Amino acid sequence: MIARRRLLAGAGLAVGGLGLAGWRALAAPAGEFVLSGRQCQGGWLRGLAPPGTRRLTLDGQVVAMAPDRAFLLAFDRDAAPGARLVAELGLGRELVQPLAIAPRHWAIEQIPLGPPPGAPPNPEFERRRAAERAAIEAARALDHGGEGWRQPFRWPVAGRLSGHFGAQRIYRGTPGSFHSGADVAAPAGTAILAPADGTVILAAREAFTLEGHLLMLDHGMGLNSALLHCSALLVDVGQKVRQGEVVARVGMSGRATGPHLHWSLKWHEARLDPELFAGA
User: Helix, strand or coil for residue 251?
Assistant: First the structure.
């Protein structure tokens, strides 16, 4: 008999596309996890914990579970090749599921020069940037208990992918920051759609120095989207939005050389690849 965990994990997005009713109806066999997703760096898993699970951890960190035992977990761009998922069942019993995390080959560009010179830091920039970072971190700490994380995600904008997640430049041996999201080139004013259900947790009406007019959505279970460089924000903090709803418009505010959308996803501290959520 093929273990149900392996069968569903091999089905790719089959479980992830069931929707809320399908997830609630699905029951994990006794003593098994049900897992489905993209088990690789920058990827994710949705799952159901075994019946009787009282606590769920990933490498010792608590993973939140919904009342139906459904959960989400994800892997950073630089995640280690293995992780340990543990369901604590009470009375000292536990079920351990080793996870093999497939490595990815990132677009790395070797630059034979030092990092390009930027504007020298000044007190005003540092003051503004510190406040912006604090606002972003405070927003990411919010969890409105939404269930957008259960949905198959959609691209917020249709267009040419002009920048891929994980790409990085190495300046004469010194690594620069890797690209933390996906860039989609589109004409200024193009509608930006909510990639999944969520709650608005940040709407930067005053453009941030780097991100410009930034919109952030909480999808629940620690998963959030950031939509950067917008020309207009059409929703307010605290507002609930539905997948496919127009929430902003494409622009080039902040540090951008042309109109495009930068879409990034984060699960707690792990930065994720939008292409693994929404498809090619």
Answer: strand
How many angstroms separate the CA atoms of 202 and 71, rounded?
24
Distance of alpha carbon 142 from alpha carbon 206, whole angstroms: 21
Q: How many CB atoms lie within 10 A of CB 45?
A: 23
Structure token digits, residue 173: 């041996």
Instruction: Give the whole-angstrom CA distance, residue 100 versus residue 119.
Output: 43
Question: How many Cβ atoms from other residues are within 10 Å of residue 161's Cβ?
Answer: 15
What is the pTM assigned to this prediction? 0.87
Q: What is the pLDDT of residue 166?
A: 93
Which two tokens mark 244? 């496919």
Q: Which residue has the tokens 């970072």?
A: 133
What class has domain 108-278?
mainly beta
Please choose, from the candidates 157, 165, 162, 156, the residue with its C-alpha nearest in 3D space to the C-alpha of residue 273.
165
Indicate the domain borders of the chain.
Answer: 4-100, 108-278
Q: Which of 201, 189, 179, 205 is nearest to 260 (CA)?
A: 189
Which residues face 260 on adjacent strands?
185, 251
Eight-state DSSP code of residue 165: T
Which pair of tokens denotes residue 57? 């951890």
Strand-pair category, 260-267 with 61-62: unpaired
- Is 39 in contact with 100 (CB distance < 8 Å)? yes
Per-residue pLDDT tens digits for 74-113: 999 999 999 999 999 988 899 999 999 999 999 988 877 7
Residues 6+ apart with CB under 8 A from 176: 115, 168, 169, 170
Q: Does the domain at residues 4-100 carry the CATH identifier 1.25.40?
A: no
